[in-house]
Write a structure and sequence with these properties.
283 residues; alpha/beta; 11 helices; 37% helix; globular
């Protein structure tokens, strides 16, 4: 029987149960596209982003760039339920789906309308008149992907169905320091940036939404080879739209209502701790 739908795109599925729901409609769709995460990756010593963030291990020894055949966390890893759920989703669909499945892995997604707009961390500081920006691990990269680039990759996969796993990302992903400099330029401001060696000295000082103790840079070769895909925009060009949205629609209102996921990380905006640290340095 001909399918009712050419492609079904699911951006929120993250478990074997969600995969089961998708499998139950494969008699009515031509192909599936699901969104996964760079969080699934682990190194040979089974270190991952969660074990590193929790201080249980050093940062994973990831190759640069990181390919799709890199090992992943276990689908039953109770210590990292989000990534484990994504792995379960991937494996269930890739092994059981009778129609083509494209799994797209992503990192720091950015764009207007995000409930976790990392860029607000810098935009708010400029609007609040902060005297300086404090960054830990500013030279590291957490590979970003603009919603424009993610959408274009999804469209390319929809046009050429196949069963595969593809990394997504912005071209030449910037470091945390470069992101800070890009956002300051977009805001029309210049502030001193203090780079801290190593981890934040205290909670709330040097913390930022791209903080990693090492770099995670994805290899985008597979998407190019499979689909002839080329990213449509750079981080800097895409961030201009995000900054405009934050200034026009978020600033001056209850930003926590717009950005609940970011608001849950109150330590990112601990100005008191930051002020105390800067005063101690000035003595």
């Amino acid at each position: 029987m001909p399918s009712d739908v050419d492609v079904l795109i699911d951006l929120i599925a993250y478990s074997a149960d969600d995969a089961g729901q998708l499998l139950r409609v494969t008699d009515r769709v031509g192909s599936l596209i699901v969104l996964s995460s760079f969080g699934v990756y682990t190194d040979a010593a089974r270190r991952n982003l969660r074990t590193a963030a929790d201080g249980l291990t050093a940062f994973p020894d990831f190759p640069v760039p990181l390919r799709e055949d890199q090992p992943t966390v276990s689908a039953d890893d109770a210590s990292y339920p989000y990534a484990a759920g994504k792995v379960a989703l991937e494996r269930t669909l890739l092994e059981e789906s009778p129609v083509p499945v494209t799994v797209i892995r992503a990192g720091a997604i950015h764009g207007p309308g995000s409930t976790f707009a990392r860029e607000w961390w810098l935009v708010k500081r400029v609007l609040d008149g902060r005297p300086a920006i404090v960054l830990s691990h500013g030279q590291n990269v957490f590979h970003s992907v603009a919603t424009t680039n993610l959408a274009d990759l999804i469209a390319a996969a929809a046009e050429r169905p196949g069963t595969r796993i593809l990394n997504s990302g912005d071209p030449q992903p910037p470091t945390a320091l470069e992101i800070t400099q890009i956002l300051l330029r977009l805001m029309g401001h210049s502030l001193p940036v203090l780079l801290l060696p190593g981890e934040p000295p205290v909670r709330g000082v040097g913390d930022h939404p791209w903080l990693l103790a090492g770099s995670l840079v994805a290899d985008l070769t597979a998407a190019k080879q499979e689909l002839g895909y080329r990213p449509a925009t750079s981080y800097a060009d895409a961030a201009a739209g995000t900054v405009a949205w934050l200034r026009d629609q978020v600033a001056g209102s209850d930003w926590r209502r717009h950005l609940p996921q970011l608001a849950a990380r109150e330590h990112l905006f601990d100005y008191d701790a930051e002020k105390t640290f800067l005063q101690q340095l000035a003595r």
